[in-house]
Structure prediction request, 89 residues.
Amino acid sequence: MARQIFGDMNCLSHPASYFLWLPLSGEVRADKILKHLIPEKISVSTAEPFSTGKYVPQAIRIALGSVPVEKLEHALNRIKEAVLYQRDL
Prediction:
């Protein structure tokens, strides 16, 4: 479902994983996506807590297993819309 929704946005995950990484392009910043989604009660993580070096990639981590399937599609679409909105600013 996630690969279909994100299409050419290059999400990264293992087929059996319950999460995926969505690298952000250009000037899109993960913290802005996070703040954009909080009022909608959609939670994603930035790469900062998972980074072990000085360079923190601009990417968001999306947990797929913690959301009921019936709500997952809506949440993934809202995440995609938030990324596209930030990209087009």
